[in-house]
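Z., the sequence and structure:
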Amino acid sequence: MKVALVKQLLDVQGPWSGMMWKNTSPSRLFEIWPGKLTYWDMTCLLQADWYIIPQQLISLYTHDAVFRHPGREEMVKRFTRNITAPEAIPLDQYDMVITLDPILDVPKNSPTLFAYHGVEHWDQTYIRSMRTPMGNYDLFLAHMMDSHDTLKRIPQPISFPYMHDPVSARSLFETSEKDDVAWVDWRALASLGMTEAWGPQNEAAARRLQKAIGVPVRYRGSATFPSYSITDPPTWGDVAFLYLQDLARCKYYVGVGRMHGGGQSAVDAAALNCICIGQSDKAYHRMLCHPEALCADMGELPRKMRRIVSSSDLQAEVLSWQERTLNERFVVGPRAILEEALQMKRNRVG
């Protein structure tokens, strides 16, 4: 499949330069990727080209990520390169075009499959798309896993996780040498500290958690990175790269107690061969984690954590389970959905 990914100028996620896959690599993507790596794996897995187009719509996400931060709009425009007019994208040269939000005027009767992510699940674009894809798009990819489970037709919204590429991740980060420590999602510590404003109460929560689970903990507090991990000037991958580098050194990942989201950072950890202990009400954790590594709440964590830590056999079983679910549900499964939808589109267009 030949794939294009498309975003708007003021979308701070993804790369900040249009590029062709043939001219880059998994490691070189960090040179143009200043923030969160949400779509880095998908880019590598699909070997996709990226196009950045002028702003087409202003959403609540745009306000949250850009407009509410003084000077950020000007900064993003100053550092973003290789912008392409929508009509200049050679859409007919691609089997599939995936956009961040429904930002293209999709041509009718095209054999190309058009799909889009709703960048933030709390944005009206995501909520409206849960009924049916907007415009002439064929698929809405619901990353919170809160839509249809199977593909029955196009157009259709469908539950679709953020894709992951463990092969690329493991080629860049050392995962065989692990420290006997647990990486704790900062949201879990925010919950324990009963505040989202990072401070001494969260540091105290980390010390309590370390004592309860019997394993040293590492983490990054929310005060250590700005909104969407975007700095002025951009750090070009430093934040994300160093985060993944530190995470790869940890034997365990703990996401129990996190307040928001689907729990996708656990999949980042699994791709780096961490033993993941998750929360049963998080969609990504249910998809990924071994039953013995799923907790109903923070109260179950110490017992389950200590059992895993004390048993090398259980650790091996958990890692084997994760490897299977990681491949089935975040690599092979999503790709199969896209390929099936593409065939549907071609059959319909003829």
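The longest helix spans residues 312-349. The mean pLDDT is 94.

Let me know what you think.
H.
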